[in-house]
Amino acid sequence: DVKVTQSSRYLVKRTGEKVFLECVQDMDHENMFWYRQDPGLGLRLIYFSYDVKMKEKGDIPEGYSVSREKKERFSLILESASTNQTSMYLCATLLTSTLYEQYFGPGTRLTVT
Amino acid sequence: GENVEQHPSTLSVQEGDSAVIKCTYSDSASNYFPWYKQELGKGPQLIIDIRSNVGEKKDQRIAVTLNKTAKHFSLHITETQPEDSAVYFCAGGSYIPTFGRGTSLIVHP
Question: Are A75 and A67 spatial neighbours (Cβ–Cβ below 8 Å)?
Answer without folding.
Answer: yes
